């Protein structure tokens, strides 16, 4: 029994020492030049945290609307305005591709939608550091968005100089989303090419794509006016891209 009491006493003493050391470290850390503020010395993380969720929301909206944040020529499906990526108003005719540079268009849509947010985040960053008595100099630069295999990269080429007992300079900030939109629009482009040559190749067979890519689900939903809504979904992540097409429309009875 005395042995157990002795062990308990030792544990209590060790715990007290640990707490005392932690308090002592906290009290003397400013004198040692150690900054415990979470954002200090890590502006990259500050910017990433500030804009990452908004970029994710923008990408999801664009993906559900056929590659556009504000579709101008669209079909409404499940209360969503879905851009036509290939269209003809003639019966029997083949559609014309509406977005021949789909990937570039989506990259520009994302970039334009987050530009104001990026500026706002850098203003918040400035305020955060100035409250810590830093001198802050921010020079706005170029924002670039790239769809790459299995990821979306936003490069923010802003020049940031922090000065407080020395200067630190940051010239590039990156936000990387794990998202395979690149792969999904590659399939979409293939379907669009098929739709644009439907009189030559016949109706698009979505099972062909699912046989080639087992991780994908590809749906074709015909509408009464001859429009088809294509929905391409990654079975693993749930990411999807959908768009509208109207091509090779047959009159009722044919």
Please describe what this structure looks like:
The protein has three domains: 34 residues; 86 residues; 106 residues, no CATH class. Helices cover 43% and strands 28% of the residues. It has six helices and ten strands. A hairpin with an 8-residue loop joins strand 2 and strand 3. It starts with a helix and ends in an 8-residue tail after the last strand. About 5% of the residues have low confidence.
Largest sheet: 6 strands, mixed
Tell me the β content.
25-35%
Q: Specify the helix fraction band.
A: 40-55%
General shape: elongated
The overall number of domains is 3
Query: What class would the helix/strand composition place it in?
Result: alpha+beta
Q: How many strands?
A: 10
The chain-level mean pLDDT equals 86
Task: Supply the number of helical segments.
Answer: 6
Calculate the terminal CA-CA distance, rounded to whole Å.
95 Å
Using only C-alpha atoms, the radius of gyration works out to: 28 Å
Topology readout:
Layout: H1 2-32, H2 43-64, E1 74-77, E2 80-87, E3 96-97, H3 102-130, E4 135-148, E5 151-163, E6 167-170, E7 173-177, H4 181-196, H5 198-201, H6 206-212, E8 216-222, E9 227-234, E10 240-246
Parallel strand pairs: 2-10
Antiparallel strand pairs: 1-2, 2-3, 4-5, 5-6, 5-7, 8-9, 9-10
What is the gist of this entry?
This protein has 254 residues and is an alpha+beta fold.
């Amino acid at each position: 029994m005395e042995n157990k009491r002795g062990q308990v006493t030792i544990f209590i003493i060790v715990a007290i020492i640990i707490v005392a050391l932690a308090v002592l470290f906290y009290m003397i850390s400013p004198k040692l030049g150690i900054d415990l503020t979470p954002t200090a010395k890590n502006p990259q993380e500050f910017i990433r945290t500030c804009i990452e969720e908004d970029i994710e929301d923008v990408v999801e909206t664009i993906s559900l609307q056929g590659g556009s944040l504000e579709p101008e020529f669209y079909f409404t499906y499940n209360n969503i305005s879905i851009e036509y990526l290939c269209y003809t108003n003639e019966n029997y005719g083949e559609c014309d591709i509406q977005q021949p540079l789909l990937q570039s268009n989506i990259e520009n849509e994302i970039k334009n939608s987050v530009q104001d947010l990026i500026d706002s985040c850098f203003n918040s960053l400035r305020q955060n550091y100035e409250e810590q008595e830093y001198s802050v100099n921010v020079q706005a630069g170029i924002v670039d968005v790239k769809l790459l295999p299995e990821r979306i990269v936003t490069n923010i080429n802003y020049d940031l100089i922090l000065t407080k007992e020395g200067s630190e300079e940051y010239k590039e900030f990156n936000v990387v989303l794990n998202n395979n939109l690149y792969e999904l629009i590659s399939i979409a482009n293939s379907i669009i090419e098929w739709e644009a040559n439907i009189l030559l190749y016949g109706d698009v067979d979505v099972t062909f794509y699912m046989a080639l890519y087992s991780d994908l689900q590809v749906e074709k939903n015909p509408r009464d006016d001859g429009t088809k809504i294509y929905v391409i979904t990654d079975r693993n992540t749930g990411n999807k891209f959908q768009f509208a097409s109207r091509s090779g429309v047959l009159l009722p009875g044919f």
